[in-house]
Amino acid sequence: MIDMQQLMAAIRDSRGILLTTHCNPDGDGIGSQLALYHALRAGNFPVYMHNRDAVPRIYRFLEGSELVGQGLAFDVADIDLIISLDAGSRGRLGFADSLFAGRTLAVVDHHVSNTRFGDINLIDVSACSTGAMAYELIRAMGLPVSKAAACALYVTLLTDTSSFRNVSTTPEVHELAAELVRAGAEPWPIARAVYEDRSPACFRLQVRCMQTLELLHDGRVAWVHVDNDMYQETGSDGEDTEGLIDLARAISGVLVAVFMRPGDDKHSWKVTFRGKFDVDVGELAVSLGGGGHRHAAGVTMQGDYHTIYNKVEQAVAAVIG
Q1: pLDDT of 193-242, one tens digit each?
Q2: Band of residue 253 on the pLDDT scale cut at 50, 70, 90
Q3: Full-prediction pTM beyond 0.90?
Q4: d(C-alpha 280, C-alpha 246), whole Å
Q5: Which residues pair with 123 in a beta bridge?
Q6: Contacts of residue 120, Cβ cutoff 8 Å, sequence gap at least 6
Q7: DSSP assignment of 53-83, as one string?
Q8: 72 has a pLDDT exceeding 60
Q9: Domain extent at residue 211
Q10: Burial level of 199, CB count in 10 A (0-12/13-18/19+)?
């Protein structure tokens, strides 16, 4: 693969590598970032990690997560290669244009909606996770997969396949998971940390969220939301919304689940989609200015709740027919 060879050459020639992932990072973004960091450090490459947003609480058990900075704790002049992991566009990284000026930008991603915004673009839409691609890169470079890297990579598989449940869960995915377990990843402690270490506030928010449930279009669409008042009432925050949309998707007869929550400013909302069967919510998100995968996608939209609700509902109606 030409892009793989270009990326490996860029890494070997670099005097300073910066690994980053998208705003509001998830398990795939953080896991692939940490795994590649551990591998490159083991190979004595000069590598740093920097994201716009903090590592979510549920992923802070991963070794090295405390090293992911939001403030630049290094001399940016030392960086000549930036590797973006799991981001579909440069805007999703959340950095000023000045950070990229005069530096090679390499993109490693598996989203269909990726805009190929790098100087080097390693895109594989058939990959189950960006972490799986990071693993291929690590192995191609002959770098070791330590226990820390294996745990981080296992998180990317676990979270981006919805616990090995979605359509991207192929025999090869299970084979990769087995390789990572042999390398030191421990499935039970990892699953417990990701899914079973939630605060009471998280469950209070879950109750409030499910009270907003609407079933539309003859029960084919499930719609839920949270707002800032609910955060304040329950003592929760945006990180506690992880997994709420999956509860809505689990309802019998639902083809599309929609979840809305406040965005990063008071004039925006994050809209998340989950699909079942043949419904392509990735295309739905793209039509609204976002992106993602066939059965998991999202978009951030500007405006008030009701205006966005109406616009999204019309788009959903067009998709399900």
Answers
A1: 999 999 999 999 999 999 999 999 999 999 999 999 999 999 999 999 99
A2: very high
A3: yes
A4: 16
A5: 109
A6: 3, 6, 7, 10, 104, 105, 106, 107
A7: SPPPGGGTTSTTGGG-BSS--S-GGG--EEE
A8: no
A9: 201-320
A10: middle
Asked if 135 and 240 sit in the same domain, the reply is no
From 168, 195, 222, give the residue that closes a domain: 195
The confidence score (pLDDT) of residue 266 equals 87
Residue whose pair of structure tokens reads 């599309």 in the numeric block? 256
120 by DSSP, 3-state: which?
A: strand
Q: What are phi and psi of 105, to 5 degrees?
A: -110, 120
Between the alpha carbon of residue 116 and those of residues 83, 88, 216, the distances in Å are 13, 8, 36
Please report, for the chain, how many H helices and E strands are present, in that order: 11, 11
Task: Determine the residue type at 40.
Answer: L
Domain co-membership, 189 together with 221: no
My answer on whether 79 and 141 are in the same domain is yes
